[in-house]
Amino acid sequence: MHDRLIEARGILADPTRHPSSLVIIAARVVVGLTDDSAECAEAVDMLHARDPRPLHAIAASMLQHGGAA
Length: 69
Description:
Strand content: under 5%
Number of strands: 0
Structural class: mainly alpha
Order of helices and strands: HHHH
Number of helices: 4
Organism: Tabrizicola oligotrophica
Helix content: over 70%
Protein name: ANTAR domain-containing protein
Shape: globular
Number of domains: 1
């Protein structure tokens, strides 16, 4: 799990170099795995910027498909 978090952080560090779909997945991973509330908030902001659906709709779709990335 730690490796996933490290990789997701790397993607979010430079999101312009990655496709939106990968940035969305990375943001979901960070939200699900980080213990840092500030990092979580930044990932939520980035997720919301890339996926315009309301956050409750994003969360519901994640649960519907078996959880986060």
